[in-house]
Design brief:
This protein has about 325 residues and is mainly alpha-helical. It is built from 13 helices and four strands. The longest helix has 15 residues, at about 25-40.
Length: about 325
């Protein structure tokens, strides 16, 4: 049970069903997650990260994505419409989205909003405006001037990587990171090349090169550089999954195969419901076997306490009808 405040300042108790192994199949488990997400929608149409918290773009995007994948869309039509209106109202005139209403500068959530809004014809124009802003956001760490300075004053303690590649950062004009680069690529994959901004083709080429260049030795990705101060970085599940999903439509590459093999070996060790859900989606997208049955071992209320995005990820991982982040059984 979860206690939450009502409009009069009193506390009410919500009881959610248990998602226990064997109690319900994957489809019913996914439907239960969706019902809880609909219940948790704020009055403004968005979702916060946790129960009764302020609406933010990221959890709203994930909840909207999960609801969009529902087989019976009519049950969620009102929730979908309200969520779309929240995201459209949150978009700034320059095309970007901010992580919270108080912020004034766009950041990585623009990629997520673009990808989710691309799923609906009526919101695709807003998504394309966001992609136009993304294509103009170049990280400064790989600018020609910064590269020139590094050649003049090389630092033997920094990671050795090709700084001619450029992806995206968590915030504009900073440094390239694996996950925001992956989300930008995932957003661009939602549209035919002829509908994308002119700069998109080169940005995609540079970003794909950056992901392969930043892979950890032995496969997989961490958040940033694969080697720092002479020490090899350890791959992490979530950055690896998002990178692999972003590279799914790219030509075959030995680094992709190596990283996919790392994830297949790692998934049996994953304890986090969030990481397990995303890893399941990633392996399914590549047509690989995944232990989806492990996803329905926790109470719905416990999952909600971990975050709205976690509940949405689990719903997506268990939903055979999802088309994003990737269609189940997709091919490379």
């Amino acid at each position: 049970m979860i206690a939450s405040g009502d409009s009069h300042g009193k506390f009410v108790t919500k009881t959610y069903p248990r998602l226990m192994k064997g109690a319900m199949d994957a489809g019913l488990c996914a439907d239960t997650c969706l019902a809880v997400l609909r219940e948790e929608q704020n009055d403004d149409g968005g979702w916060g990260y946790h129960n009764e918290s302020q609406s933010r773009v990221e959890p709203t995007c994930w909840a909207l994505c999960a609801l969009s994948a529902a087989q019976n869309r009519s049950d969620y039509a009102l929730a979908l419409s309200r969520a779309q209106r929240y995201l459209l109202a949150s978009q700034q005139k320059e095309g970007f989205w901010t992580a919270s209403p108080e912020m004034k500068t766009g950041n990585w959530v623009t990629s997520l909003a673009c990808a989710v809004l691309s799923l609906h014809v009526e919101t695709q124009r807003a998504a394309l405006a966001g992609l136009a802003w993304l294509c103009q956001d170049y990280p400064l760490d790989s600018s020609p001037w910064r590269r020139f300075l590094r050649r003049l004053r090389p630092n033997p303690n920094t990671s050795l990587h090709d700084d001619s590649y450029r992806g995206w950062g968590w915030t504009p004009q900073t440094s390239s990171w694996v996950e925001p680069t992956a989300f930008a690529l995932l957003a661009m994959q939602q549209f035919p090349a002829e509908h994308l901004p002119v700069a998109a083709s080169r940005r995609r080429m540079l970003a794909v090169g950056l992901l392969y260049d930043r892979m950890c030795p032995g496969g997989g990705w961490n958040c940033g550089n694969p080697r720092v101060y002479g020490v090899d970085g350890e791959p992490l599940v979530l950055p690896t999954c998002w990178a692999l999903l972003a590279l799914r439509m790219s030509p075959e590459h030995e680094n992709k195969s190596l990283s996919l093999a790392w994830l297949e070996a790692e998934i049996s060790k994953i304890q986090s419901p969030a990481s397990l859900a995303v890893a399941t989606m990633c392996l399914q997208a590549y047509g690989k076997a995944s232990p989806a049955g492990r996803l329905n071992l926790e109470d719905c209320e416990e999952l909600l306490c971990k975050g709205v995005h976690v509940l949405a990820w689990i719903s997506l991982a268990l939903n055979a009808h999802r088309v994003w982040p990737a269609r189940i059984g997709g091919t490379t």
